[in-house]
Write a sequence for this structure.
């Protein structure tokens, strides 16, 4: 009896400490967002003078900076937003289509060359994309795809990480589904689109968020490809408001908030499927 | 004529749906992608590294000259910066999220589902935005948030971004802030896949929680661990955007310039693509060698005996 009480007490202490640790990190994780929001309400000179602070002062703080997004260089911020959305949607939809197809093919069929192709997927995942920038850029120049949205998404059409993930996911599905579909008179493609894709929805959910977030936040490659100011994505555009002569915080801070809010909303709506999907397609063997 | 054109699509359809061909149709996009986006550019990087390139179509073979000129002071500094970051990145981003994942799975934490989804949110922000906030948080003024905290804890305010070591510390904090939630989810996916009877068996043998972690959890998540370390090594050596976001245009003595930063500067800003290719291949060699050593040490190539 006494011992059990002792163990319970120890467990309660441990539980308290663990939960406290989680709460501390939760604060660390959220604090930059709070800073960002508070700063977005302040005049730019205030930021330049005092830097970050958590205060919201009545009289000084207001939402007027958000109006600056509409007026700054004729509302170019919303042009950047449009570019980011177009690129994100194209890149994600095409990537999901090809990524799921290849991953499914590798998992569902046994064919000559399968191991070679899967090994290539793994090798490609280990090559830093950054070393391909220059030859790809030269290729774009020759193909006249510079300063073009298609040039931006070209390297992400068949994302290896998606192939890897979808393969892991499909390996966990019963192969009998394919046979059953065939008996019902479906072609193999029909089986994929009509039977398998609906089953793979959690995997699609997880990959949509990962791909959307990669694309939305991508900087280096779009910066190399795009050269017209109106075609810039949000990260490139925001980069142009940072200058040695002082940063345009009036635009930067509300712009940062507006850039992150839609992603967080999508995430919060889909987070259950997202986390379940990511966990189910775990990295096995 | 008419007959042929009518039969052709049928034959094509029959060919495409035959059981032998179907798998290849499914994987064809990757094969094309691999040849176009990876193989061709990789081969052309190797070739470019032996060339002097003037404009998109004219080039001249210059043998090993790019490699001979490679190890300038700036490049060595960039190598140091990236290596320092990669080492700390691997240590911190492997261990800390693992600790959190184990705690979240242990049942000791109340509301663990809530924390799991909350910890992921920083990964949704762009690095540029994160960099702006962290630059200000670790600002030079005594009133910058981190310096206020340092003073409150009885320390001295610092000029964080003026020195290579403290700058690297800020980079690691920022990376941990962004990636913690992602790595926690990777680890949890591995931990949840470990069958419960293994833990029960260990308990019957009288194992304490720490022994259970080292004897059951750690071997059980080895594939996930290998995956996390591999992508962290890659991300560490190839880091670029984080340092650009943090130092912006003021980069005292080049302490924020990484290998990819140097590659960008040489290849795009100075338009010396041949030299930049040599830089890129050095990076590739570095990543592959480090990852190969890591994979051997982690027993990736060992035959599964369990």
């Amino acid at each position: 009896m006494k011992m059990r009480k002792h163990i319970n007490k120890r467990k309660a202490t441990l539980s308290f400490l663990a939960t406290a640790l989680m709460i501390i990190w939760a604060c660390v994780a959220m604090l930059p967002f709070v800073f960002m929001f508070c700063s977005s309400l302040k005049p730019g000179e205030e930021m330049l003078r005092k830097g970050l602070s958590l205060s919201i002062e009545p009289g000084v703080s207001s939402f007027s900076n958000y109006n600056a997004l509409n007026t700054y260089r004729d509302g170019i911020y919303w042009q950047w937003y449009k570019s980011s959305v177009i690129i994100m949607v194209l890149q994600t939809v095409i990537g999901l289509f090809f990524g799921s197809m290849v991953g499914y093919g590798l998992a569902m069929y046994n064919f000559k060359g399968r191991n070679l192709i899967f090994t290539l997927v793994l090798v490609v995942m280990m090559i830093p994309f950054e070393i391909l920038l220059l030859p790809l850029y030269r290729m774009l120049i020759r193909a006249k795809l510079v300063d073009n949205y298609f040039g931006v998404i070209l390297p992400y059409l068949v994302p290896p990480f998606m192939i890897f993930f979808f393969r892991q996911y499909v390996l966990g599905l019963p192969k009998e589904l394919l046979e059953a579909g065939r008996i019902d008179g479906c072609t193999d493609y029909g089986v994929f689109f009509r039977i398998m894709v609906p089953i793979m929805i959690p995997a699609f959910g997880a990959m949509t968020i990962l791909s959307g977030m990669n694309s939305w936040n991508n900087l280096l490659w779009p910066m190399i490809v795009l050269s017209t100011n109106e075609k810039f994505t949000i990260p490139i555009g925001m980069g142009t408001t940072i200058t040695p002569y002082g940063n345009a915080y009036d635009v930067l801070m509300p712009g940062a908030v507006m850039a992150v809010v839609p992603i967080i909303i999508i995430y919060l709506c889909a987070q259950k499927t997202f986390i379940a999907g990511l966990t189910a397609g775990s990295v096995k063997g | 004529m008419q007959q042929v054109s009518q039969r052709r699509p049928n034959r094509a359809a029959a060919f495409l749906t035959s059981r032998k061909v179907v798998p290849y149709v499914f994987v064809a996009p990757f094969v094309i992608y691999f040849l176009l986006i990876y193989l061709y550019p990789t081969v052309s990087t190797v070739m470019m590294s032996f060339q002097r390139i003037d404009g998109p179509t004219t080039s001249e073979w210059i043998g090993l000259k790019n490699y001979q000129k490679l190890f300038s002071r700036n490049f060595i500094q960039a190598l140091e910066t990236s290596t320092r970051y990669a080492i700390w990145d691997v240590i911190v981003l492997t261990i800390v999220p693992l600790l959190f994942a184990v705690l979240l799975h242990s049942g000791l934490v109340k509301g663990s589902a809530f924390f799991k989804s909350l910890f992921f949110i920083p990964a949704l922000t762009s690095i540029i935005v994160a960099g702006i906030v962290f630059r200000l948080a670790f600002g030079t003024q005594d009133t910058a948030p981190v310096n206020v905290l340092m003073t409150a804890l009885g320390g001295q305010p610092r000029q964080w971004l003026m020195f290579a070591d403290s700058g690297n510390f800020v980079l690691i904090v920022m990376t941990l802030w962004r990636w913690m939630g992602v790595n926690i989810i990777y680890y949890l996916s591995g931990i949840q896949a470990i069958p419960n009877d293994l833990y029960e068996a260990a308990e019957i043998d009288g194992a304490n929680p720490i022994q259970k972690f080292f004897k059951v959890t750690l071997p059980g998540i080895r594939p996930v661990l290998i995956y996390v370390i591999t992508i962290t090594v890659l991300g560490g050596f190839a880091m670029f955007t984080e340092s650009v976001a943090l130092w912006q245009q003021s980069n005292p003595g080049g302490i924020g310039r990484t290998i990819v930063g140097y590659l960008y500067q040489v290849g795009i800003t100075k338009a010396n693509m041949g030299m930049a290719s040599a830089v890129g291949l050095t990076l590739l060699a570095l990543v592959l060698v480090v990852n190969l050593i890591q994979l051997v040490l982690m027993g990736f190539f060992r035959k599964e005996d369990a």
